[in-house]
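Let's practice the habit of predicting before peeking. Look at the sequence and jot down your guess about where helices and strands might fall. Then scroll down.
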Amino acid sequence: MVGELPSLPFEDEAFDLALCSHFLFLYSAHFNYDFHLRSVKEMLRVARELRIFPLLTLMLEKSPHLIRLIDELSIEGYHVEIHPAGYELQQGGNEVMVIKKPAI
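Done guessing? Here is the structure:
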């Protein structure tokens, strides 16, 4: 099955975990905030938990979308945390965002 963000061809909660590696945040200059938000929500539609790594842009800076996304998801009841990744491909790129759906 082939799909692409921000629209995936999977059933709701088809997966326990979704992982987005080296795409969102990394390409913040190429994809706007709305694309990031829609993509995150789509991955959370198909999985109960989402992890995104790294949180840096290609310029090795924190994504300008990061804080706004955390704030918006938190307001909507999602549980959002930043954890050390134990892995660093880019200098300073050693954190992973973990997002869990709100308890029903």
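How did you do? Residues 15-100 form one domain.
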